[in-house]
Amino acid sequence: MSEGKQVECGERMTIEHVESLYSQLESALQESNCVELIADRVQQCDTASLQLILCLFRMSKEQEHIVKWVNPSQSIINVAELLGLTESLDLTQHITQ
Predict the structure, then answer these.
(1) Separation CA 74–CA 27 (nearest Å)
(2) Which residues, 6+ apart, have CB-to-CB distance to 11 below 8 Å?
(3) Sign of CA dihedral 82, 19, 16, 66
(4) What integer pLDDT is reported at residue 4 of this predicted model?
(5) 20 in helix, strand or coil?
(6) How far apart are CA 39 and CA 24, in angstroms?
(7) pLDDT value of position 1
(8) Which of 26, 73, 77, 84 sits at 20 to 30 Å (Cα–Cα) from 93?
(9) DSSP class of residue 29?
(10) Strand 34-38, strand 66-70: pairing
(11) What whole-number distance in Å separates Cα of residue 21 and Cα of residue 10?
């Protein structure tokens, strides 16, 4: 059961796809106050995409919207850990040790 608007992140969250991801996120926020990031298929992730998601998280807090991950891939978690963003991106509960 979905609580909000789902955004499928695809297999690549890289700079080549940031503009498309931005458009999807912008539309999702206009349609719902809750956005679910479906990220289980992401195989490649880079700084640009996580910067965009970080901005989304910060903006959503200001506007009292909810953003949450749905099964973020290990690739996303690895890059977020390298950048020191796991807490800021609300990924800590998805880390398995």
Answers:
(1) 26
(2) 41, 42, 43, 44
(3) positive
(4) 85
(5) helix
(6) 14
(7) 40
(8) 26
(9) H
(10) parallel
(11) 9
Rounded to two decimals, the pTM is 0.89
Asked if 73 contacts 43 with a C-beta cutoff of 8 angstroms, the reply is yes
DSSP three-state, residue 89: coil
Strand-pair partners of 7: 37
Asked if 32 contacts 61 with a C-beta cutoff of 8 angstroms, the reply is no
Ranges of the chain whose pLDDT falls below 70: 1-3, 97
Structure-token pair, residue 3: 């609580």
**pLDDT score for 96:** 72
Q: Please, what are the domains in the chain?
A: 5-90 (3.30.750.24)
Q: Within 10 Å of residue 39's Cβ, how many Cβ atoms?
A: 23
User: What is the model's pLDDT at position 51?
Assistant: 96
Strands (E), the chain: 5-8, 12-13, 34-38, 44-45, 66-70
Q: Cα-flanking dihedrals φ and ψ of residue 24, to 5°? A: -65, -45
pLDDT given for residue 95 in this prediction: 82
